[in-house]
Specification:
The protein is mainly β. The chain has a domain of about 120 residues: Lipocalin, CATH 2.40.128. Helices cover about 5% and strands about 45% of the residues. The protein contains one helix and 32 strands. Strands 1-32-31-30 form a four-stranded antiparallel beta sheet, with no helix packed on it. β20 and β21 form a beta hairpin. The termini are far apart. Part of the outer membrane protein assembly complex, which is involved in assembly and insertion of beta-barrel proteins into the outer membrane. Part of the Bam complex.
Length: about 375
């Protein structure tokens, strides 16, 4: 019963998050901001487009494609998993797991990894799509499993971290956490190295485990719950963690954005922020899609805001991604926006999917891949 209630609370809270921008006592929610007219300085050219099943499905899933080498992997909420040539869009293989996929896609070391609402992790051969193994975990998997080739690390909705053998799927270790009373529907994807498994928790903490044994190496609190109600005290880390060199970047909902030294867990800097989708980093700056719909650039040296573009208020933005000299971000109407990294002004815009663009754009070199909510997968380059 407890798990059912947590699921119900999480689902309700996810809807509450999507209504950001209005106060709890407002009589009427403000609508998404109207798109401003822009002068296009950059044009995106579609190279190919494919349909990946039902896309994100009816629940608030956050399925994101992954690239390993020259292959692009994508999954839909009904269990369709595809491998495509990332340059041509040609399909290498397509399988239907007939499972409610809710976490994915993880890819690397010959594996394609997805998690399900039924608490399963499925590993497929990246070359053929054949199933390598299937493992049961403690609860729903709402983010992509990650692997270093030896261990597959999974974070479940109940804030447990589980290490599975990458060859067989057998459980090597499990690390128990006490989740927050009320949480957003989702978890960030673990980050793995040869030595560490790092995860953001619903309590606003980041924890690093020894990847071989699942034993804590360090723990760092990023945000402290504040407020009288449980809703006000939610400080989930749902946006993907970002590792660049030896620095881990993390942002919480209703809390902070911070940089952490992964060797010892020491916090290098922090700044107030609120995001449930994540951040990007490039050119000495950190870019955050704020919960209210603004995109902010933060200078890593001074931790001051360089610019803030609030023209996309309440448009339910995706996590940002650095693309060439720009910052790319999707919105609820399926537009992919390009902003200047220098001052945040709009430089380009492309309609991808009328059902919305929730997944973080995926950038590989001069290519950007956008996965729409209805399952439309589009590859674009700058014209």
């Amino acid at each position: 019963m407890r798990d059912v209630m947590r699921w119900k609370n999480a689902a309700v809270l996810a809807l509450a998050v999507l209504a950001v921008g209005c106060s709890s006592n407002s009589k009427k929610e403000l609508p998404p901001a109207e798109l401003p007219d822009i002068q296009e300085e950059v044009q995106l050219e579609k190279q190919w487009s494919r349909s990946v099943g039902d896309g994100q499905g009816e629940l608030y899933n956050l399925l994101t494609p992954a690239v390993d080498g020259e292959r692009l992997f994508a999954a839909d909420a009904e269990g369709v998993v595809m491998a495509l040539d990332r340059l041509s869009g040609d399909v290498f293989w397509k399988v239907d797991l007939e499972l409610p996929v809710s976490g994915g896609v993880g890819a690397g070391y010959g594996l394609v990894l997805v998690g399900t609402l039924k608490g399963e992790v499925v590993a497929l051969d990246s070359s053929s799509g054949e199933e390598r193994w299937r493992a049961r975990v403690t609860s729903e998997v709402l983010s992509a499993p990650a692997t270093n080739g030896d261990v597959v690390v999974v974070q479940t909705q109940d804030d447990r971290l589980i290490g599975l053998d990458a060859s067989t799927g057998e459980q090597r270790w499990i690390f128990e956490n006490s989740p927050a009373v009320l949480t957003l529907r989702g978890t960030s994807s673990p980050v793995v190295t040869n030595r560490l498994a790092i995860a953001g928790l619903s309590t606003g903490k980041v924890i690093a485990l020894d990847i071989q044994r699942g034993i804590p190496v360090w723990e760092q609190r990023v945000a402290v719950p504040q407020g009288r109600s449980e809703l006000e005290r939610v400080v989930d880390i749902d946006g993907s963690l970002l590792l660049s060199g030896g620095t881990l970047y993390v942002v919480t909902y209703q809390g902070k954005v911070a940089a952490i030294d992964i060797e010892n867990g020491r916090q290098l800097w922090q700044r107030e922020a609120s995001s449930y989708v994540g951040l990007a980093q490039g050119f000495g700056n950190v870019y955050v899609s704020q919960a209210g719909g603004s995109v902010e650039s933060i200078d890593e040296r001074s931790t001051s805001a360089l610019w803030n573009n609030d023209a996309l208020a309440r448009r339910q933005l995706s996590a940002p991604e650095v693309f060439s000299s720009y910052v790319a971000v999707g919105d609820l109407e399926g537009y992919l926006h390009l902003l200047s990294q220098v001052d945040g002004h709009f430089v380009g815009r492309e309609k991808i999917d009328g059902d919305g663009l929730r997944a973080r754009p995926l950038v590989v070199g001069d290519w950007i891949y956008a996965y729409g909510n209805s399952g439309k997968l589009v590859a674009l380059t700058i014209r």
